[in-house]
Specification:
This protein is 32% helix and 23% strand. It is an alpha/beta fold and 431 residues long. Bound molecules: flavin-adenine dinucleotide.
Length: 431
Amino acid sequence: MANVPVQQMIPKKLIIVGGGFGGVNLALQLKNDPGYQITLVDKNNYNFFPPLIYQVATGFLENSNISYPFRKLFRKYNNIHFRLGELVRVNPDAHTIELNNGTLSYDYLVFATGAISNFFGMENIRKYAIAMKNVNDALEMRNTLLQRFELATITSDLQERKKLLTIVVAGGGPTGVEVSGMLADLRVHSFSKDYPELKGTGAEIYLVDGSDHLLAAMSSASQKDTFEALNKMGVRIKLHTRVKDFTGDRVELSNGETIETKNLIWTAGVSAIAFEGIPASCYGSGKRLLADPYNKVIGLSDVYAIGDTSLQKHQADYPEGHPQLAQVAIQQARLLAANFKRIQAGKALIPFVYKDKGTMAIIGRNKAVADLPHHVHFKGFIAWFLWLFVHLVSLIDYRNRIKTLYNWMVAYLNKDQSLRFIVRPGHVQEK
Ligand SMILES: Cc1cc2nc3c(=O)[nH]c(=O)nc-3n(C[C@H](O)[C@H](O)[C@H](O)COP(=O)(O)OP(=O)(O)OC[C@H]3O[C@@H](n4cnc5c(N)ncnc54)[C@H](O)[C@@H]3O)c2cc1C
């Protein structure tokens, strides 16, 4: 195959399931490559940017600022096709996949299906809590919280009013920190003005985490700065504590305490998705697919996994696998694309080595923490500005960047935003 001229090659059918950071980057790296005919399958018809969904959830950004339709993204490239569908089963021997709306055959299959919320088997929490994984969750959170604030204005039962307004955020990772910081900021700058009749209700924002620190994966300086900043903003932080149960009216904590609330936001765990047809031996912890240094799923032919759903243990710094971060997915996608080109050229493959470019979390207005390589730590305005810049340039299209920048500027100058809409197609009542 190494010596076949490119124009005589029959392109290989490459199916990528999942159009997040990993899937989209892989497809775009192979755009116009005559060696590959690519079909990107996703259950949504748009790509979205998970690090900013909490801003959609809190009415700070519009959904369209962080989402982009696949068909528009790929329309310039005649070797990339989009297929709307949900993967339900894989037949590795037959080299086919079954979607909820048809069957496709492949020469190479790449899993880039990301992760979903993990409720650790706690059925009540799955049923009643608000998850924070995708755009649907974000819109659900925005609608639900706003609807409950409206209910709070009309109930004369003070206990019920406090329950409607109190919010518990489970999980002190970046998402939990960012959501609780944003809610605390909104409480001061927006809700107090929108709902003057709700002042003095005693409602609180709680942030609950089972470990010793917030932002467990970041430096101790970032952990300390974040704790202090959130504390000052009035967020009640409970460490060494897990959410054990939620009745829809009351959160039960592992330390025996209970919090009367209708609002539990769940950011406390993720898991990859296991698909029918893949042998159980292919999965490692968190249902991630065990992959070799070239992202090939161990035990299967022509099947690869990148991003949150892949688990590689070959890199000495990451013996339990790489962190589930956007940069890991992007870097794996880029290398896998290069390796697919090397397969066509008959060259040796290059193993994956993750290069950590740093981690950041925003806490509130002018407040953030950033850990950069070589133990460089920033906090406050510099970290906040860096966070805004990195997230802005990472958005998929210039239109999204312009819209987001505009919305952020309006919010910064006004200390407020005007996107607090309850839009519930098909719903009229509080769920
Ligand atoms: C709220 C939130 C905030 C985050 N903040 C940060 C951050 O600040 N920095 C950072 O580095 N990382 C952050 N992350 C993590 C980061 O988003 C992930 O590591 C990254 O998205 C992983 O990329 P991926 O391509 O593996 O999966 P994803 O980007 O999750 O994409 C998976 C895609 O697969 C599709 N899919 C799933 N199942 C199926 C199926 N059965 N059939 C068809 N399609 C399917 C989904 O629709 C989705 O488009 C955050 C994650 C969340 C949820």
